[in-house]
Design goal:
- Chain A: Its cofactor is thiamine diphosphate.
- The complex is a heterodimer of chains A (333) and B (281).
- With 333 residues, chain A is an alpha/beta fold.
- Chain A has two domains: 163 residues, Thiamin diphosphate (ThDP)-binding fold, Pyr/PP domains (Rossmann fold), CATH 3.40.50.970; 131 residues, Rossmann fold.
- Chain A contains twelve helices and 14 strands.
- In chain A, the strands form three sheets. In chain A, strands 3-2-4-5-7-6-12 form a seven-stranded mixed beta sheet, sandwiched between helices.
- In chain A, helix 1 runs parallel beside helix 2, helix 3 runs parallel beside helix 5 and helix 8 crosses helix 12.
- The longest helix of chain A has 14 residues.
- In chain A, 54% of the residues are buried.
- The model of chain A has no long low-confidence stretch (mean pLDDT 96).
- Chain B contains ten helices and seven strands.
- Chain B is globular, with a radius of gyration of 17 Å.
- The chains are: A alpha/beta (333), B alpha/beta (281).
- Chains A and B meet through helix 3 and helix 5 of A and helix 4 and helix 5 of B.
Chain lengths: 333, 281
């Protein structure tokens, strides 16, 4: 090694909470907490409930604003979900928060049998979705979308940025029935404001067009897809990005319409295991519609993932902007 | 009660008899079922629906009602029997029990049946739901009670203990739980499957107003319900009801492995006759 080799930036390793914002990126603080306070002004039926993770889901802001409407249920996710169902049956609209792993894995039956089966008006917002924690499999909700998609009557939302979370909160409240939303908390990247974006449950949005490749993505992978598209521009590769924040119900008509346009490679990118998420949902929708473009899938492996710093892990598992860009270039030859 | 159900002057013993009779008639429709539990809990249900609870039979969702949560959904046959007796479900619907498109499925579910407050079946749910019901009622300033029935087998479930702790934390004095100690669960005697005693001491240690009664002694059950409602402390209440599987039908009381029993076609008539023979009113 020569003395001029630039020193590698020090990475924080395997912290539970890590920012997904890249350096210098515009962010907004605690969009969920602020949006919920705003919603609380308009609707007195909104209550907040959590299982010892108020601070880490930005619900503490709501608790501070409306202490009498905040329910700290302790580190007990089963009673959290059951009690939310009971509250909803008595006319409240609980916004329930915890980490995605605990809601979807530990409390699954309680969501299934007491919330979804009665189609109750409970809104579940869960932090650390997919690979957004370097803490290891205990906190990496790599299969949360598959689990929640499989639940009858559940609406599933994977928002991209702070703006979308702000817009999703009132949309969730206006929707009658249970909703699961992947939550980004803390300083959350702000991306979609540059696209004149408006979130609507069940609607996919074309964020940019391009003739060579169509990236269909949700959540933070849309942010990455936009960065990838920008990088591909420099190589005169035109990438379109279709953002699909609602995983269920899926906007099949928009997906089929865009994937039907000839001459484009279709790449689904998701922050989720290859099994049971957006990729499989899109593939099924296309096959059933008789559309069969060249198709690739960027997703996390079907494995228990490593602990480590998020940038390391995103590189390792292929969901960082640089690795994605390289793979797309390879695929496009 | 705001609106007395039909025949409201009948004694509680007579109510319990008719609940048992309804349950046996439903059991006969299917030839099998959780009939021994229905017979053991009939006295508790008689006191609940004909002494303790406020409700309107013609309006099962009336806001001012007391709620009855059936956590052990397989006891639905017993609750249907009580709801029929209370005039919430018509008597002639009894013959549809467990049949296709019936409003009376074998496992109790909220969407199917008037007066069924929750979907049970997955044991260990009810008390968690009840915590939310009680919090929700308090939020509305309601003075309704939530009665929750669960089984001794459910004490195996960790979620039940989460809810027991939570109810005490939230000082849910509008919660009256009844746990049916018939000491029988799917794989055998509950105390053998997973030792749950000493239950009184456990519940007291968790901060609940705790009573233990013979769940088949109607006067004792009635007194326990009265005491549970009248207790002035800011804490949840529980009635630990020791019951006898098959109560009221001696040959079923003596039958072993009676968690899910099969009764031969000719035995239903014998069971009804045995029940009649034991009438005390």
């Amino acid at each position: 090694m020569s003395a001029t080799t630039p020193q590698k930036p020090r990475l924080t390793t395997s912290a539970m909470i890590a920012s997904i914002a890249s350096e210098g990126q515009r962010t907004r603080s605690a969009p969920f907490g602020h949006a919920l306070i705003e919603l609380g002004k308009q609707r007195s039926d909104v209550v907040g409930m959590t299982a010892d993770l108020g601070k880490y889901t930005d619900l503490h802001l709501f608790a501070k604003a409306y202490p009498e409407r905040f329910y700290q249920m302790g580190m007990a996710e089963q009673v959290l979900m059951g009690a939310a169902a009971g509250m909803a049956r008595e006319g409240a609209m609980p916004f329930v928060t915890t980490y995605a792993v605990f809601a979807t894995r530990r409390a699954y039956d309680f969501i299934h049998q007491s919330i979804a089966e009665e189609h109750l008006n409970v809104k579940i917002a869960c932090a650390l979705p997919g690979l957004t924690s370097g803490y290891g499999p205990s906190h990496q909700a790599t299969e949360d979308l598959a689990l929640m998609r499989a639940m009858p009557g559940m609406t599933v939302i994977d928002p991209c940025d702070a703006l979308e979370i702000e817009q999703a909160v009132p949309a969730m409240a206006a929707h009658q029935g249970p909703v699961y939303m992947r939550l980004l908390r803390g300083n959350v990247p702000l991306v979609l404001d540059e696209y004149g974006y408006q979130f609507e449950i069940g609607k996919a949005r074309m964020l940019r067009d391009g003739p060579d490749v169509l990236i269909i993505s949700s959540g933070i992978m849309t942010m990455r897809a936009l960065e990838v598209a920008g990088a591909l521009d420099k190589d005169q590769i035109g990438a379109a990005v279709l953002h699909v924040p609602t995983i269920k119900p899926l906007d099949i008509s928009t997906i089929v319409r865009e994937a039907s346009r000839p001459g484009r490679l279709v790449v689904v990118a998701e922050n989720h295991t290859v099994i049971g998420g957006l990729g499989e949902a899109v593939a099924l929708a296309l096959l059933q519609a008789g559309v069969s473009p060249a198709f690739r899938h960027i997703a996390l492996p079907d494995a228990f993932l490593d602990a480590g710093a998020l940038p390391t892990l995103h590189d390792r598992y292929g969901i960082s902007t640089s690795v994605m860009t390289g793979r797309l270039k390879d695929w496009l030859g | 009660m705001t609106t007395p159900p039909p025949g409201h002057n009948a004694s509680l013993a007579e109510r319990a008899y008719r609940i048992r009779r309804n349950a046996l008639l439903m059991g006969e429709v299917q030839g099998q079922g959780y009939i021994a539990q229905a017979l053991d809990i009939a006295d508790v249900l008689a006191v609940s629906y004909f002494h303790a609870m406020t409700y309107r039979p013609e309006d099962p969702e009336w806001e001012g009602r007391d709620r009855f949560m059936l956590s052990n959904g397989h006891y639905a046959i017993a609750l249907y029997a009580a709801l029929i007796e209370a005039g919430i479900i018509p008597q002639d619907e009894l013959e549809t029990y467990g049949s296709d498109d019936s409003r009376l499925p074998m496992s109790g579910m909220a969407a199917y049946t008037p007066g069924m407050e929750m979907s049970g079946g997955s044991l260990g749910l009810g008390l968690a739901l009840t915590v939310g019901r009680c919090l929700g009622l308090k939020r509305k300033g309601s003075d309704s009670f939530v009665y929750t029935l669960f089984s001794d087998g459910e004490l195996d479930e960790g979620s039940v203990w989460e809810a027991i702790q939570s109810a005490a934390h939230w000082k849910l004095d509008n919660l009256i739980a009844i746990v049916d100690i018939n000491n029988q669960q799917a794989d055998g005697p509950s105390s053998d499957v997973m030792a749950f005693e000493p239950l009184v001491e456990k519940m007291q240690a968790f901060g609940w107003f705790t009573q233990r009664v013979d769940g088949n002694d109607i006067d004792a059950v009635r007194a326990a319900f009265d005491a549970a409602r009248a207790y002035p402390g800011a804490c949840p209440r529980i009635i630990i009801a020791d019951t006898l599987m098959g109560k009221g039908v001696p040959f079923l009381e003596q039958r072993e492995k009676n968690h899910f029993i099969r009764v031969e076609p000719h035995e239903w008539q014998l069971a009804l006759q045995a029940l009649d023979a034991g009438r005390t009113f």
